[in-house]
Amino acid sequence: MESEKPTAIDLFCGAGGLSEGLVDAGFEIKWAIDNEEKVKPTFEANHKTNMVVGDIRKIDPPDLDLPEHGLELVAGGPPCPTFSLVGRSKINSLEGQNNIDDERHHLYQDFLRYVSHFEPKAFIMENVEGMMSAENKDGDPVVEIIKSQMEELGYKVNVQVLDAANFGVPQHRNRIFFIGNRLGRENPDMKKWRTHRPPKNEKEKKIKFKRNYKEKTNENQMTLNESAGIRTEEQLPVFKKNKTPKKPWTTVADAIFDLPPVSPDGEIPPTKAEKYEIGPVSEYQYWVRNIPEDTDWSDMPLWNHECRGHNMRDLTLYKLLGEGVSWIIGDIPEEHQPYRTDIFPDKLKKQNPRKPSSTIVAHLYKDGHMFIHPREARSITVREAARLQSFKDTFKFPVARTHAFKQVGNAVPPLLAQAIGTAIKKEVLKK
């Protein structure tokens, strides 16, 4: 009996940002794999799916307990290939092979090996934006090579670079997405699924307060205000093709300013906060807290909101980076520079509360200098980084802080994944 929900598998799943978004879009994740052991506790704490830790190159699709031709979607973000070595090899020739010792073998080919075997109705493959301009050692565009290999498998493919901020994520994050289907249908043009846009004026950069966070609105019901031409707020997220009007970008302030203050060392503020002190005040904060029906926000635990340690020099420099005035270390007088500005112009960066954050990166686990809190002399916490990636507060990272930062930085933002999943479900799968 066919599942009521479209089914998918998540390759190179990490903590599960892509899976989270696809589940929110209405998919059922049947299987997931990653070679990093530390992501398993996180994935399984937040998903019902059994996640396998292993080397995808050693696992052949026929060995899995999955229907060969029953999947609707194969999704994943394989690690970046060495672009110069990407060749025009036939993907079909990889079936049943383990090319671990072949230096020309790239993990994106294993992604396509799974596509070749399961023949899903559609696939999503995510990678870094730099692939768009990359060429191999023969001067051939890497994107065109990969796209042609996908087309050889019988898929209609388009390639798009998407900024997560245009889909409600409070972060600028440009990533390339290969979207393909074997049904002969047009793949969704994600520009038509954007929900957010750049602000038009200074007022739109301010925090967007939600007047009554318990009020649930129904976008299909027209209120007296709407009939008079005044639009009421829609509960996040609403992904519809050609949605109008679009909202201004979600900002850092929208995302994290309701979280209680924490400090590197001290009782007030504490180093770690485990409960909320105020209710959500912005539309995004209400959504991201994921408050269950008939539950008060004060009864919910707060996870992963702990400040890392900082030395006095860094804390002093953090204070010097003025909110709305100075954002990078190049603005600090030369005699106080801890780094060479010609090499590290952005080594210290305070995030602007009136804009989406800069791209959350995996090496945030090493230091937080690029992600200084807008109003507190410290780097951001795991929970704040997770919010900037659009992970809900109920998404736990039950691992050491360094691993949690890395997992957050490597993830596909769930809201962006939900937008793509919704578009594929509606336009390709017709569900």
UniProtKB/TrEMBL annotation:
Residues that span the membrane, as ranges: none
Entry EC number(s): 2.1.1.37
BP GO annotations: methylation; negative regulation of gene expression via chromosomal CpG island methylation
InterPro entries assigned to the protein according to its UniProt record, in alphabetical order: C5-Methyltransferase (IPR050390), C5_DNA_meth_AS (IPR018117), C5_MeTfrase (IPR001525), C5_meth_CS (IPR031303), SAM-dependent_MTases_sf (IPR029063)
Family matches, as Pfam families: DNA_methylase
Transferase is among the record's keywords: yes
Gene Ontology molecular function: DNA (cytosine-5-)-methyltransferase activity; DNA binding
Cleaved signal peptide residues: none
Organism domain of life: Archaea
Keywords: Methyltransferase, S-adenosyl-L-methionine, Transferase
Family: Belongs to the class I-like SAM-binding methyltransferase superfamily. C5-methyltransferase family.
Protein name per Swiss-Prot or TrEMBL: DNA (cytosine-5-)-methyltransferase
Naturally occurring in which organism (per UniProt): Methanonatronarchaeum thermophilum
